[in-house]
Amino acid sequence: MKKATISVFILFCGLTLVACTSSEYKKHMQQGREFAEDYQLEKAASAFNKALKEKPKDEHALTELKEVEERLEKIKLEEELIKAKEAEEKKKEAEEKAKSEENNESSENDSQDLTDEEFNSWVNDLIETGDGIIISVEPYMKDDWEVTNVYVSSDFFIPSVDQQLTMVESVGPAVQEMVERSGKSPYTSVVFRYEKDDRIVAEPKLTGGYKIK
């Protein structure tokens, strides 16, 4: 009788343990599926692993865990691809920026291909070959070459107006080019002035060329 009672007790405990195990297994499986549907894949994987602790090698738990792990791996690969693409784009942007800066620097160097010494030497040659007409080439204001003044002597008025026009239309563009090439100003307007009273004797027209005042 006593042995029978013990056997019944052991059977009862076994059934209780099985029931508890089955209950925990079902709970973890349900949680895993809910997490998976909600895209909380890491929590889903954890829940399925807990289910496998209750029922090791359970086919359903193993299958659903494998599906979740595959989804996680796919997401990881996609994130790595996105990061690699972003890194490549940043690298490309940096290279383009460096190239742009290099081109800008090159353009600046090209626009400043005359030293002050070379510019002054050219001005001296212009004065020497000007038959006494050109006296000096100066900025309108100190160090401000947006307007360049070419001062002329009274000899400027000896030739005809047509000859005066030919002279200023030859000298003006040449002075403008040399001022801009020297880097003194990206653009300059060249005006001819009489040295005695500073009045303008020739200036650029809006439509191009020069007009004699």
UniProtKB/TrEMBL annotation:
Residues 1-19 form the signal peptide. Residues 86-116 are annotated as: Disordered. Keywords: Signal, TPR repeat. InterPro entries: TPR_rpt. It comes from the Bacteria. Residues 86-102 have a biased composition (Basic and acidic residues). TPR repeats lie at residues 25-58. Residues 103-116 have a biased composition (Acidic residues). This is Lipoprotein. It comes from Bacillus norwichensis.
